[in-house]
Amino acid sequence: MGTPVTGDGRPPSFSGPLPFTGRDAELERLRGGLRRSGCRGVVITGEGGVGKSRLAVEFADEAAAHHRTVRLPVSEAASHVPLAAFAPHLTGPAGPGELGAHFQELRRLLAAPAGRPRALLLVDDVHHLDGSSLTLLSALATDAATAPAPGFFLVATLPQDADWPEALRSLWHQDAVEHLRVGPFDRATTARLLAGTLGAPVAAPVVRALWEAGRGNALWTREILRAAVREGTLRPVDDVWCLTGPLDDTLLDAPAEGRFRGLPEDRRTLLRLLALCGPLGLDDALAQVAPAALAALEEERFVTVTEDDRRSRVQLAHPWHALLLRRGTPRLLARALLLEQAGRVREYGARRRGDALSLARWELDATGTADPDLLVRAAGHALDDGDVDTMCRLARAALVQGPHVVAGLLLGEGLGQRGEFTESIPVLERAFAEARTPGEVESAAAALSQHHLYGLGDADAAFGVLGRAADRIGTRPALTACRATLLSAVGRNDEAAAVLALGEGADPKPDGDDGGWTQADVLLLQAHLRVRLAGGRVEEAARTGRHAYAVQCGLADRWTAYYPARSLYLVAAALLESGRLDEAERTALEGQEAMRDAVPALTVWFAWVRGRIALARGLVTDALSHFREARALARLCGQPFAEQRAVAGLVLAAAQRGCVPPEAEALAPACAPEDLTPAWGPRPDPLTTAAPASPTRATAPAAPTRTPGAQPRPPAPSPYTPLCQTDTLRAHGWVLLLRGADGPARELMLGAARAALGRGEATVATALLHDVLRWGPPGGAVAGELVSAAALVQGALAEVRAAHAAAVNSADGPDPAALEAVAERMGALGLHLYAAEAFAEAAGAWRRQGRAASAARAAARALALRGRCQEAATPALAGAAAAVPLSARERDIALMAARGRTSREIAETYVLSVRTVENHLGRIYRKLGVTGRADLAAVLLA
């Protein structure tokens, strides 16, 4: 879906209300109250901006189709004018002395004629009614509640803490009026709201940021959204809305600034201090104002007081107040407040975990500089929080004062996360050159090699960095881990396994001087995770990844192995390949929650893996959405490696709908099958030869065997480039198939699968071979290869793929009963598209055996499962619809019967006699080979 832009390429601002969404339960409560004659009204309450008035108006608009609707124009401005709200509905002048006459006139207006539905009276912000209007409304409500005939139905709104009019409170005590509380939106509703407002998909980091910033409040969300779009902080990238900067800098058109001006100076100073420094301890707050003043600020909703780790903390009630206050604080006053608070924290000893980060930020904001060691420690804390922008700012400030290896590592990593590789690589090269200890050298080499490969796609440079590091410090565990990771990334998984001396099911053990875990251990665990995932040991990979995540979360320093959540997207991928789709989805969501959205490059991979999970489920539209989000995020943060993986996923998902999307032209070029296997292998090399060691750990010789200063030999040619991964080849294969090049498509996929097997990549080989099997005949040789490859892969997914191959390749041709059994197993795993295809294959096999009823039943199961697959249209499904011998009317009747509707209900729906419906059902049972409604439900509602 395209998004309009202005002449300068920026999206236009939008005005008007947001789409109405997320209030289905509240609307149903209101409808239920209107239907019940004993209910005389509903009072809607909630905090300001949650949408009380919008809910009431939407309900009134809906009810107006059948009920006369009377709306009172209530406003704070008119609250001092007697009867201002009722005046438009009175025939004569409104006056407090005529309340009796006005009562009778309004009573007649609101009375429902005999046999007609009762009228609806909407009073928004009932607390703003003047005294005379409130008296009149109370009399009308009481009269309607006690009248023998149904009176009008009242819908009134009130702020959360406002006093109820006595008449409404009395009716509520009598159970004649219901109380409906409206709360803020949850994140899922906010996502729907944003997508509906912006008219295009919205990236998950945007949803999270706006939901947290607006706290689910519809009014605040609207204002933040408008400001972010207006300033370009939020803009579409490849038709997906993405954040291009922090929302903290977004200037709102908020009238709240005037609220602060009327406060006493001491209270305003405290609010400014909170805006500049964030939450404060209760003692620090009371150093600025008296207890009574702080209580008044809390009561007026300027601040909130919470308990955090047995410590009372004071913070601004809404984060957007901080921006308004900072903007209005003079520079010298801000400097004084920041330094004063920094002095207090230093007097306390600065012992709390976040104190170093706070001190560095405050002193840098106040003076433009700070102690370099403090800045580096603070940058490390920002790394722990996943705050890349703050980490870069602090590390850069430290480097201004002179060389610092750790500052260079942190800055280089942060720049790489933002896709600024042309700057990050020189920064990391300087850190590498300045590194003195073995730990510093291996940390710099680890980061620099990954930036060369994943940032620039330069595998030779990446391996060269590791070679230079080995020349300086020997082959250490961290370098071994990096070498294995890079080898696996460029399709040399067998060599990676040899480098790790990969033991069966064994993980590395702690290698710290005190027996504790180190950053090098985390890199080794992550390398084991990647190699096992590619090699088919997916159950082991999932366990190893969980282990790596737990270990890394417990490390104090992470400037070699940075973000713990990085392991979780790989764990999700391993769980997917093992057939545990629900666990995979939960793990992907856990990873998104565990990291801050300020880590740009990492957000890409969670969108990517969720796309893969959705595609495995057959949720093709959802998969397309996730892959588009991944591509947009990758492009936004300059990650070409990740972008190409996302494009491949997008093309593959579109192909499952039977179409070749324009993005297919952006796929990296594919090698010809004969080029997929290298012509020569690597010569012995201390970095590629596994060291003789314990099977649980790769160890290294004490000294390097290279000649110092020698140029490293280039690695063997990889079966594909860093940008042309196996999923890219898989996407190319589907594109060729859809363009009618069946032979070249099979040749490419089979060549890629065989090359992958030869390089130790059983997991992807199995996926490639299964795709070819799904395309249909010729399948004998493919089926045999798939069974052999699947035997190398752990988990239920490989098992059902092997069973599928065996069912297709039976001695007498495809075995329909075995195919149906495989389809059932696939469906139980949540692989609905695979299950639909297997049932469609079974239908064809039954038909060739002359079993028409069995064929129809299997085809109906295929169609029912395809209905859960969001417009899937693969080759295997092409004949399923034609194989179900039901007319359109028969299919409609069959579906209604399968869903439990009686023959009389079906007859009334289609204006048929019950006997005609029964005759239709009899023919349907015979055509599908079933005996009754229960069997029908099993076939059609799979």
The CA-CA distance between the termini, in Å, is: 32 Å
Overall outline: flat
% residues in beta strands: 5-15%
Q: Enumerate how many helices there are, as a single number.
A: 42
Q: Name the poorly predicted regions.
A: 1-10, 672-720
Arrangement of strands in the largest sheet: 2-3-4-1-5
Molecular structure report:
The chain is mainly alpha-helical. It is 58% helix and 5% strand. It contains 42 helices and ten strands. A five-stranded parallel β-sheet has the order 2-3-4-1-5, sandwiched between helices. Strands 8-10-9 form a three-stranded antiparallel β-sheet. A hairpin with a 2-residue loop joins strand 9 and strand 10. Helix 22 packs antiparallel against helix 23 (493-500) and helix 39 (888-898) crosses helix 42 (933-940). It starts with 23 loop residues before the first helix and ends with a helix. The model is unreliable at 1-10 and 672-720 (pLDDT under 50).
Give a quick summary of the entry.
This protein is 58% helix and 5% strand. It is mainly alpha-helical. Helix 4 packs parallel to helix 5, helix 17 runs antiparallel to helix 18 and helix 21 (459-473) runs antiparallel to helix 22.
Descriptive labels:
about 60% helix; 10 strands; 3-stranded antiparallel beta sheet; disordered N terminus; 5-stranded parallel beta sheet; about 950 residues; mainly alpha
